[in-house]
Amino acid sequence: MQESTDGIAGNNQFVVDLLTTLREQRFSPPGWWGFIVRSWEMSCQTANVNPTLKRSWLNTTIFIALLAIATLLASGAFEGWGILFHLLPGFLFCVIWQQSDLFWHLGLNRQAHSTGLLQSVGLANTFTLLRGLAASLLLGRLVGGVTTPSLLALAIFLFGVATDILDGLVARSTRTQSKLGQIMDGEADFCLYLALTFILIQNAILPLWLGIVMLLRFTLPLLAALTSYFLLAQPVRFGSTIWGKYAGLAQCLYFLVLLAPPQLSPLTRLLDLPLLMATLFLLIAAPVAQIIANRRM
User: Fold this and answer.
1) CA-to-CA distance for 117 and 43, rounded, in angstroms?
2) What is the pLDDT of residues 194-240, one digit of tens each?
3) Residue 173 vs residue 236, higher pLDDT
4) For the chain, how long is the longest CA-to-CA vector?
5) Which of 90-94, 104-108, 287-291 has the highest mean pLDDT?
6) Do residues 236 and 229 touch, judged by C-beta distance below 8 A?
7) Among the listed residues 177, 46, 181, the one whose alpha carbon sits nearest the alpha carbon of residue 126
């Protein structure tokens, strides 16, 4: 156990040293290049020392790649190949980034106080990756200037909610909660809700001012974390607060009301204003609570 603890402490100190060097070089291009190269070398070392984990990452990446190809083929078949070529660059960039980011953070695939790395990406993280794949499709459509019908946005949103529930249930039942899972979950949620917010604004369903408030819920804690990470040379701390959970629930319900089919309009009109007021309050409270929680750690 002491050896593992020393290893974790060593990794953290390595990251702090990298960040300190980057800051001392005033975030110059050579400084960024050294930061990226040394970080990648550390990730490769982790993968090479843990071949079972590396193989699990490779199998998961192949699985996600096959699903990405199937998604592209389905988009071309149902919407036309012209639309496919418009969404292709953004979609591929997001998918490649997601799997590279997973490899980059394999060293965090451990439970708190664990004696070693978990040697499998795991089912829970795979559910999170599926949500990230769905978010990548929406982001690809946005970047490519492709309009997303509300029905398609609703289907992807419900899929995202389902995978969000499943990844938590599986992680708890199999005792495979990890910092890697926390980071991936936060990134997938950020990308999915970012894309959905822009799509709702694009489809004139969500007012611009309200969309900005929703985006601030994610960007304010992100900016605070990046400031801590790069300017103060302190590793980013991830975690949820009760306010954040309630804000996420309220936002989910409000998106559901906005994306609901026209046949349900009598019910959605009744729920719209109360949900809007609750969502606004919680969207303001959640980032404040997250920043306070990070400062106390």
Assistant:
1) 13
2) 999 999 999 999 888 888 888 877 776 667 666 666 655 555 555 56
3) 173
4) 62
5) 90-94
6) yes
7) 181
Closest CA to 96 of 140, 160, 56, 54: 140
Question: Looking at residue 6, what is its pLDDT?
Answer: 44
CB pairs under 8 A, 24+ apart, for 160-165? 160/131, 160/134, 160/135, 160/188, 160/192, 161/252, 163/127, 163/128, 163/130, 163/131, 163/134, 164/131, 164/188, 164/189
Euclidean distance between CA atoms 47 and 41, whole angstroms: 10
Residue extents of the structural domains in the chain: 1-49, 51-205, 230-297
List Cα–Cα distances, 109 to 65, 77, 123, 243, in angstroms: 21, 38, 13, 26
- 173 contacts 155 by C-beta, under 8 angstroms: no
> What CA–CA distance (Å, rounded) separates 286 from 294?
12
Q: Both tokens of residue 68?
A: 């990405």
**pLDDT tops 80 at residue 106:** yes
Write down the pLDDT at residue 211.
Answer: 86
